[in-house]
Amino acid sequence: CTIVMSTLNSSSIPASFLLIGMPGLEDVYGWISIPFSLMFLTSFVGNGLVLLVITCDDKLRQPLYLFLAMLAACDFMFSLFTSPSVLGIYWCNSQLIRSQICLLQMFFIHSLSVIESALLVAMAFDRFVAICHPLRYTAILTNSVVTKIGLASALRGICIVFPIPFLTRRFPYCKSHRLSHSYCLHQDVIRLACADTTVNSLYGLIAVLLTKGLDSMFIIISYGTILQTVLSIKGNDARVKALSTCVCHVCAVLLFYVPLIGLSVVHRFGKHASPLLPVLMADVYLLVPPVINPVIYSIKTKQIRQKIPNVFSFLLSHLRCGLAPGLPI
């Protein structure tokens, strides 16, 4: 990060950008901050608990749970990199963000989005192997393979998004420095540039098509094959049981892709819509999945649901020991 920031300092970008929260609702920012604060708190606690449960229990060192731990880590970092600017606006009305910090935030938001998309594909592949080739499941998805898939997902996200801040910083910004959201997004920043942004726009489009476009296609193909296999199973109970193992992942996919499609439609066709609409859609796309994913998996996954009270008991006992080490527990 130090190298990146020192390079960005030499660019022609302005000293800072102005972040926007909810246009026209500035008088009620104090009230708006409450649901946003609860969302980030839920995201940190929920994803942290999922990570803690999976990493501390050897019985959960299985492909499905390892992928879930990676997804929880990704969602945790999503909230970590978006919460300072979002809560700064609604808590303190602090709308200015240094341009170098803005570009770094932009890099992390977009790279984590690509990584999460890849993890959703990996989880779809996990369900495909488990349902369509159950006898080969342990042979195909070993812990080593799962680790390599996770590393490949992270490297893909970082490598694809890495050029974007450097392509963005080279523009002169003579227009307004007012952004449209509570955080920095690539398409929002280049909109303010006083230069030809064709390269950035093409690179962003190709990157989206090669990542989320292909990922969504692989997920659809996986579930098409899964449905075909499930329908060939004799007995309704067996079919329901097979499909029930996919419920959490389907919810995670819908939470990720439906707001993304909605945001794209609003940006493309909603020119006469309220300025609040794209802001709300972007907030749903970026902030809601990290909140809902751990809730869904905690409720629907029996192994995780049963372990969470044990984690709370463990943390509480250690907290009491720390506060009063001489007292019996």
Salient structural properties:
about 325 residues; mainly alpha; two-stranded antiparallel ribbon; 13 helices; receptor; Olfact_rcpt; sensory transduction; transducer
The beta-strand count equals 2
- Provide the succession of SSEs: HEHHEHHHHHHHHHH
Low-pLDDT segments, ≥5 res: 2-11, 324-329
Shape: globular
Q: Biggest β-sheet, characterized?
A: 2 strands, antiparallel
Second rung of CATH, namely the architecture: Up-down Bundle
Secondary structure: helix percent: over 70%
CATH homology group: Rhodopsin 7-helix transmembrane proteins
- Just give the CATH class: Mainly Alpha
Strand content: under 5%
Tally of separate helices? 13
Radius of gyration: 22 Å
Tally of discrete structural domains: 1
Strand order of the largest sheet: 1-2
Question: What is the average of the pLDDT values?
Answer: 85
Which class do the helix and strand fractions yield?
Answer: mainly alpha
CATH topology assignment? Rhopdopsin 7-helix transmembrane proteins
Present the secondary structure layout:
Blueprint: H1 2-8, E1 16-18, H2 29-56, H3 63-92, E2 96-98, H4 99-132, H5 137-140, H6 143-161, H7 163-169, H8 186-190, H9 198-231, H10 236-244, H11 247-269, H12 276-300, H13 302-323
Antiparallel strand pairs: 1-2
Note down, in words, how this protein is organized.
About 75% of the residues lie in helices and about 0% in strands. By secondary structure, it is mainly alpha-helical. It has a single domain, classed as Rhodopsin 7-helix transmembrane proteins (Rhopdopsin 7-helix transmembrane proteins). It has a two-stranded antiparallel sheet. It starts with a helix and ends in a 6-residue tail after the last helix. It holds the Pfam family 7tm_4.
